[in-house]
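Quick one:
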Amino acid sequence: MGFNLKEKLQNVSRKNVAIVTIILLVLTICASAGYEYYHYKQLEAQKQELFEKLTASANQTGEPQKPSEYKIGIEYNKAMKSKKPVLVLFYADWCGYCVKFMPIYQELSEKYADVMDFSKVNVEDKKYEKVVNEIGITGFPTVFILDPKYDNKVLLSNAYLGKTETVSKELDRYLRIRKLLDSKK
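Output:
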């Protein structure tokens, strides 16, 4: 009465092998999904930690902490019906660069209020998903001059976004060209 492996394997049906295989496959998939979810949660925690570090100074001064908390501009769809060019900021609330850019954007919105409209688009808001995909947003912040009157779209390089003066130069340049176009009509 010893253990005979060969005899035991011959008595195993194909049905039992299929069931064991499926169970092992399901366990493997569950383990893999759990592993991915664990890493996703770690990345989310790191993003939140980075956001909190970058906004710590804003918290101390009482200024808005997230780009969405700034009361700048008009809703995107309304801005696209305007006759003025629109400076559109595509942002994410967790983006540290977006947080740093907001005081500059606010200053620009005050300086150019008479000649331009301003709009902010939170790229994580589902209502803007189509716009974000059509324009091709790949990083944050992304700033465009959109001009519905001339069906024109100008991407401002992120290299300009560090100072109000550099963005202002680009806006002034665009407004000069637009004025020339207006005078040709």
